[in-house]
Design goal:
It contains five helices and 27 strands. A hairpin with a 7-residue loop joins strand 14 and strand 15. It folds into two domains: about 110 residues, membrane protein fhac (Ubiquitin-like (UB roll)); about 400 residues, Porin, CATH 2.40.160.50. It has a 20-stranded antiparallel beta sheet. It has about 575 residues and is mainly beta.
């Protein structure tokens, strides 16, 4: 690494966040003044939750209060433009809210069910927030108010993004709250590094009061097509007792193999997949829900050379797997409401309890498979809060097959995230992750680059069987709220990572300095929290400096993209 450019990059990052912090301290109000309003006030004559529960209080009434995109009771939002937006926006229908409530009139009062219902409502992009609380109590009967606020859900899409030196563009229209029903309808065109995509999608996560969902997609792409359908009644709540569903997918595309940020091979992939399952649970007991599921999956893939292109050096193995499977899932009822962690100014529901699932299937030629194999897939996560200012989250995952006496196409992952809220405005964020591959085919190679965390390098820059990445980020949350539409933040970051094992198909290294095995970058950027849109994205505008770049890489990377988190 050349010392001077590295020092300059790191100093620039620190100065950038320090300057914004100083500006914020002088001209911006406190961060806490920007937290979402909580208008449901519990009258003093209503007992606390524990007393209501122990006395057997019953829900006697539920009142819905639906607030439009802008709240005219707030002076700053009572302006002609915002009133016009409210007039042309269809507020979420009462029926759409009622179908998602986990309680009914006549049920016993249970505060944990109210909090879970809030989380469920907030998980919808078309609602910026949801609060539920008792507003009246007499003779063992409780009256509840459910208050929700909409986001703007009609989104004409004119998309532009840049990461890893490549652009993504798109256009289309998307409605995430179709006529106020909570359904999503999208017609999109997107051009990315892999293909042009023309698609139509329809999703309704609450078809009826029985919590069935429908998700359908049809895409006509420049290199193939995609057709997908899912009809399911999931475990929609911690106390859900049964689930069932079916999903279908049919897809054809051209896949690319990358090394050193270059396409080194292309091949045509055709895939078909179908799954049907049913599940059962005893519900929530002692803070845990244990769920058992069983089903059958059909998984078929075929790869061939791309017509008109040079033959691929290595093609992925074809497969045809038909296997029954069983799964067990554990979900712990331990959540915390927080702010300014992964979003800006929004209520975030942080899962601190155990969330784990393991599935095991047995493929056999007796069912029409092309091999005997065990197919496994598992995930687990847990969170801790050593203090009010610190949050530590970790996760692990494993998936792959065991066939012919050995693991195949198997990936084992572990990751951690740490947040230290130093002040009301500043948070130190640290993350680390390791992925270990075993006998990965050319289609399962692990990549590292500008599209998955190593921001100063081209996308899919390094490829191999193992991958690791560590990030340190100093985050600044301001209370700057331009036009009451966006929340503004900033970050200075440092990334370091690498891969091991090498790509199965390798690119020719550029002349001069060979690519380093350990890659580092530093950078800084702005964060724009999209407060009024149903997508809830955080727009990243970053400048990143690769510190171990070979001569083929630009010394400065400009990144513009929409992410789900800070």
């Amino acid at each position: 690494m050349k010392t001077l450019p590295a020092v300059v990059a790191l100093v620039a990052c620190v100065l950038f966040v320090s300057c914004l912090s100083a500006i914020g301290a002088e001209v911006l109000p406190s961060v806490r003044s920007r937290l979402p309003e909580r208008p449901i006030v519990r009258p003093p004559d209503i007992p606390d939750d524990a007393t209501l529960e122990s006395s057997g209080a019953v829900i006697a009434g539920v009142h819905l209060v639906r607030v439009n995109v802008f709240d005219p009771t707030i002076v700053e939002e009572d302006i002609p433009l915002f009133r016009f937006v409210n007039r042309i926006h269809i507020v979420t229908r009462e029926s759409a809210i009622e179908k998602q409530l986990l309680f009914r009139i006549g049920d016993r009062y249970d505060a944990s069910v109210l909090r879970e219902t809030e989380r469920r409502l907030r998980s919808n992009g078309y609602l910026i927030d949801a609060q539920i609380g008792p507003v009246a109590y007499a003779d063992g009967k409780v009256e509840l108010t459910v208050r929700t606020q909409d986001t703007w859900t009609l989104k004409p899409q004119f998309q532009f993004g840049r990461s890893g030196g490549k652009n993504t563009t798109g256009a289309g229209i998307e409605e995430q709250n179709f006529f106020g029903t909570g359904a999503r309808l999208a017609l999109n065109y997107e051009q990315n590094v892999d293909r042009e995509i023309r698609s139509i999608e329809y999703t309704d996560l609450n078809l009826n009061a029985q919590h069935w969902l429908l998700d359908a997609q049809v895409a006509d792409n420049s290199d193939g097509y995609r057709q997908a359908l899912k009809v399911e009644r999931p475990f929609y709540a911690l106390d859900s007792r049964w689930a069932t569903g079916v999903s279908l997918r049919n897809e054809a595309r051209i896949d690319s193999v990358y090394d050193l940020g270059q396409v080194v091979e292309k091949y045509h992939t055709a895939e078909r997949e179908a799954t049907a399952y049913a599940g059962w649970s005893r519900g929530l007991h002692d803070g845990f829900a244990t769920r058992w599921s069983g089903g059958i999956t059909f998984d078929e893939r075929h790869a061939k050379d791309v017509g008109g292109a040079p033959p691929a050096a290595i093609l992925p193995d074809d497969r045809r797997l038909i296997y029954p499977w069983v799964a067990v899932e554990v979900a712990q009822d331990e959540f915390r409401e927080t702010y300014n962690l992964n979003q800006i100014g929004r209520v975030e529901d942080l899962a601190l309890g155990w969330q784990a699932r393991f599935q095991l299937g047995a493929s056999t030629t007796a069912f029409g498979s092309d091999r005997d194999a065990l197919v496994f897939d598992g995930t687990a996560s847990k969170g801790f809060q050593p203090s009010g200012a610190q949050t530590w989250l970790w996760s692990a995952a494993a998936n792959g097959r065991f066939e012919h006496g050995a693991l195949a196409d198997s990936i084992f992952s572990i990751g951690t995230r740490y947040y230290w809220r130093q002040t009301a405005r500043h948070t130190l964020f640290l993350s680390g992750g390791v992925d270990h591959g075993v006998n990965l085919g050319v289609d399962k190679q692990l990549t590292l680059g500008g599209d998955n965390g190593l921001r100063g390098y081209p996308l899919r820059y390094r490829t191999g069987q193992d991958r690791w990445l560590v990030t340190a980020e100093e985050r600044l949350f301001t209370d700057w709220y331009p036009f009451r539409l966006f929340s503004v933040g900033a970050a200075a970051f440092f990334d370091v990572g690498g891969v091991r094992g090498g790509s199965l198909v390798q690119a020719t290294p550029p002349p001069g300095q060979p690519p380093a095995n350990v890659l580092r970058d530093a950078g800084f950027g702005l964060r724009l929290g999209n407060m009024r849109s149903a997508l809830g994205n955080v727009v990243h505008i970053d400048v990143a400096f690769p510190l171990d770049a070979d001569p083929s890489i630009s010394k400065v990377q400009f990144i513009i993209q929409a992410e789900r988190t800070f």
